[in-house]
Amino acid sequence: MSLPPNFGQAFDLSSLTKPKVDPDVPLPGLEVTVENLNSNILPLSLVRPVIVLMWSPRSVESQEVVKTLGKLEVDYQAKWSLARVNIDTHPEIAQAFQTKNVPYAVAIIAEQMVPLFEQAYPEAQIRLVIDKVLALSAQQGIGEAPVEQIEPEEEEAMLALESGNYALAEAAYKKWLSRKPNESLAKLGLAQTQLLMRTEGLELDQIVEESEKSPQDIDLQLKAADIEIVNGGVEAAFSRLLTLIKTCTGDDKNKVKTHLLNLFALVDQGDPRLVSARKELANSIF
């Protein structure tokens, strides 16, 4: 693996604080050093993909991602290997991987680097990333692509949605969550299904027109935001409820805030419109 053209340039890690890692607790994965990068890590990538995580003992988030990846390495039964780079002790390696902040993950497949993510994510989302890495690796003749497994409740929900039976789909997702309360896909599926239930039979233009005539009608504004989301008007829906929050108080304000947070969950967490709306919500509350 050749070094990138910006090798040796400084990277901004000024946001990190003093070390917060317990030196007596071993971290999972192979520790990457200048010595073993070429002798061990790169040759290993010819056998199975290697996911390399840049971390720092001064970043609690990066430590948690190391632990999550360590758990997943066990779950995937050695279909891929975890390696980690302590950017404090090996800054030259961090620079070689073009690290700008931590946690930062890359995959090495057949000695080729594939950037993955530059922030902490929940386990469920990291699993999706790993599945894509394994699929990409299999395309290059290294390892096998993951076999997609679908939960019985998910299959039940999908069949119900295809037939337009939202109530049955909602029940399936709730059953899934009762069995796996932290399952992010079930939470997302339930939120999407409930949104479809709330907007079934509504016409966008009609609801928006009615909402403009009654700007203080909270239920109508929530309904308008729902149907805007369904029709792709993410920014319009967020702006509508953020404006409403500024004019509400007490229980009404909490009601609108809760509804807005539910809509936030329907949008990709890296979407700049969501990031901006989160900041505006925080400013309007505090």
Automatic annotation (TrEMBL):
Matching SUPFAM superfamilies: Thioredoxin-like
Pfam families named among the record's database cross-references: TPR_20
Protein name as catalogued: Unannotated protein
Organism: freshwater metagenome
